């Protein structure tokens, strides 16, 4: 069986004369928790819609489970569960009845036990008979995930599942995504604006910006680059001395970014040594903060 779950090459999608997606390239493998990261309007949802065959791309190749999407749509979509819009439920029906109805309409009725198990899995045990109208946004999102799981898909696609949730709701959703991977061996793709969220739960990611995938790969490798950016805050009158010490290190780049702060790019393993030298030379250090290149890169993207 192929380990490639999603392969997208040179995807493009226009809305009229507007190019929403220009060149997106993605590789998702079995068991990945894969993050689509990007600012508003970057093209994340459009990419997801193309990959779920909700809209037709103008160019590019999309394969899911090793099969071209265009010629295997029905077979592929049977293996996918997605939450793209805000989930819509009958407010006056219970959580159980909503899922029961949905499973009947979709032509593969689930048993009562299966639905109860699903509700328990998403943390809604004890609320099975309650009307959905009284549920919080987080509970509805989790009910939406239960709905996507009813037909036991291999791949789950979630568009911004934590947006609008309170801090506890965000933690619950992140834990649920991790349990889907660890306990149910699902492959999960979700979109987010938040780098630290992607860092916490994803093993692979893509940054999409202005319709293009600009960085793609293993999250740990992308974040742990050899060169690090650190910010050192010292005393105003010690800045020049501090800069001249750091500048002597091979390939170090140093710039002053405030009256008492310098920003240094240098090899990760040299950071403790630089720290020691500065202190020995009498340069007081008020704070030393490590910044990752990817974080900087992403913040700059958001600012542009
Ligand atoms: N049906 C449509 N018609 C016209 N323009 C659209 C349509 N759908 C999306 N767009 C535009 O395409 C661009 C990409 O939108 P998309 O929803 O894919 O971005 P996104 O990265 O998911 O953003 P967000 O994080 O805000 O959801 C945006 O400028 C959006 O306004």
UniProtKB/TrEMBL annotation:
Entries under SMART domains matching the protein: AAA (SM00382)
Pfam families on file: ABC_tran
SUPFAM superfamilies referenced in this protein's UniProt entry, alphabetically: P-loop containing nucleoside triphosphate hydrolases (SSF52540)
Membrane-spanning segments: none
Alphabetized GO MF terms: ATP binding
InterPro entries: AAA+_ATPase, ABC_transporter-like_ATP-bd, ABC_transporter-like_CS, P-loop_NTPase
Source organism, top-level taxon: Bacteria
Gene3D superfamilies reported for this sequence: P-loop containing nucleotide triphosphate hydrolases
Keywords for this protein: ATP-binding, Nucleotide-binding, Transport
Domain (ABC transporter) ranges: 6-235
Family recorded in the similarity comment: Belongs to the ABC transporter superfamily.
UniProt protein name: ABC transporter ATP-binding protein
Organism: Aquirufa avitistagni
Organism placement in taxonomy: Bacteria, Pseudomonadati, Bacteroidota, Cytophagia, Cytophagales
């Amino acid at each position: 069986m192929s380990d490639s779950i999603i392969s997208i090459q040179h995807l493009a999608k226009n809305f009229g004369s507007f190019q929403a997606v220009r060149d997106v390239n993605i590789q998702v493998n079995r068991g990945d928790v894969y993050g689509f990261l990007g600012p508003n309007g970057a093209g994340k949802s459009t990419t997801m819609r193309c990959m779920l065959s909700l809209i037709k791309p103008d160019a590019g190749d999309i394969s899911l489970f090793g099969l071209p999407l265009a010629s295997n749509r029905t077979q592929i979509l049977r293996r996918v569960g997605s939450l793209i819009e805000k989930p819509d439920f009958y407010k006056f029906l219970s959580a159980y009845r909503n899922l029961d109805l949905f499973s009947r309409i979709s032509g593969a009725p689930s048993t009562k036990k299966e639905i109860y198990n699903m509700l328990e899995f998403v943390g809604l045990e004890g609320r099975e008979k309650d009307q959905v109208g009284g549920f919080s946004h987080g509970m509805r999102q989790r009910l939406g995930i239960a709905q996507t799981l009813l037909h036991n898909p291999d791949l789950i696609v979630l568009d911004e599942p934590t947006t609008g949730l309170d801090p506890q709701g965000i933690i619950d959703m992140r834990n649920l995504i991790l349990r889907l991977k660890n306990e149910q061996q699902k492959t999960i793709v979700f979109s987010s604006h938040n780098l630290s969220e992607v860092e916490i739960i994803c093993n692979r990611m893509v940054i999409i910006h202005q319709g293009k995938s600009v960085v793609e790969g293993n999250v740990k490798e992308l974040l742990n680059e050899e060169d690090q950016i650190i910010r050192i805050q010292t005393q105003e009158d010690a800045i020049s001395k501090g800069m001249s010490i750091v500048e002597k290190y091979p390939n170090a780049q140093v710039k002053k970014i405030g009256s008492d702060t310098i920003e240094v790019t240098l090899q990760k393993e040299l950071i403790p040594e630089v720290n020691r030298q500065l202190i020995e030379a009498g340069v007081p250090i008020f704070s030393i903060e490590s910044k990752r290149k990817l974080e900087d890169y992403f913040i700059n993207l958001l600012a542009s």
